[in-house]
Each structure stands twice: as structure tokens, then as C-alpha cells.
Amino acid sequence: MFTGLIEAVGAVADVRSADGGFRIRIRTPLAAELGDGESVAVNGVCLTTTLARDGEMHADIGAETARITTLGSLQPEAPVNLERAMRAGGRFGGHFVQGHVDGAGTVEQVREEGDTRWLAVRYPPALTAYLVAKGSIAVDGISLTVAALDASRFEVMIVPFTWAHTNLPALRAGSRVNLECDMVGKYVARAVEVFGAGRLQPAPTTGRKGRSTTAT
Description:
Number of domains: 2
Radius of gyration: 19 Å
Oligomer: single chain
Largest sheet: 6 strands, antiparallel, barrel
């Protein structure tokens, strides 16, 4: 589990094909604090550290991950957002982020407004049911709030601190970004889909004196 609060921006050292997927090496000071097998979100994608040494972390990218996300198309020296998995008992500051990307969006516009920036992103139609105005969205692993929403794109406002401490300055119109919708919203949408269609009934609950009841 992650929070969408980026810890560091690393730089891609190498991405190469391996066993149907890819193998990535990332230069980052976080490598000194990582252990083999530790989970790290790379541009919002949960990866397993296979090796961490000499200022680099190594990880494998499966074929399905490469298909759904932007990781397989990363080029050397590209900046990537990094976040280690949240520790139990740690402070929670963003929103629930699993590192399971729902799809890739395309940046349509980056514009300045005073000290802030606005990012407009076109999203895949399959994500329509999971996006809510003023709801949460992870863009390349960054916890952001949907400030404006229409049938094909959303906008988020970027404060100066987030702009300065993530890979967002590297984005341009046409850049592809990983999107993960709010986990709670996805479960609600799925429940409406299943129960609303009448295919399943809610699980029975135990009422007073152990009698079985069904929630309505």
C-alpha cells in the first residue's frame, strides 16, 4: 500500500527486454535504504526490488504491466517518481494507492496560473465510472485531486512543492502518464454493478439472538 506522496525522483539508467517483459535499473539515493524483495512504486506502478546496490535499484516489469503502463517505454535518464510501501503505523498523508495502474492517460495541456500549474489529462473510456470531481486520482503515482472533469478528460492543480519534488516538470502535451483511480470508488462502482443488476444478493448478517437476516 502506498500514499501517493513521492519520496524521491530517480533517473532511469537502463530498460531492456527480458523474458517477455523488461528489466529496469534506476539511479536513486533510496537504493541504500532498500532491501531485496521490497516493494517500490515507480511512476505509480508497484514493483519488487530484485537488487539494490551502488546507488541503483533493479526491478522486473512483467509483460502485462508493460502493456497497461508506461514503464516499458521509458528511456534512459527519464525521471521517475519513487515511493516505498507505507509502513504499518506510519503517517498517512495522501490517499489509498495500491500501485495497480488502471490505465494510461495522455497529457493534453500544462498551463501556468500564478505559482501553480494545471495539468489536463485525457483518460481511457474504461475509467469513466471511477472518476469523480473532487475525488482522488494518482497520476504517475502522485496523489492529486480531480479539480475538473468531463466525459474524456480531467484537470488537476499542481502546487509549487509538488511541482518541484516530482517528475511533473518533464511532462509535455502528448506525454503518457499512469493513472490509478481511487480504490474505494472502484469497490463502490463494482458493488453497484453487481448488486444493481440483481445477480447477487448481499451476504446474510446475524441479527439478534443469532437469527440470520439479510441486509436490504
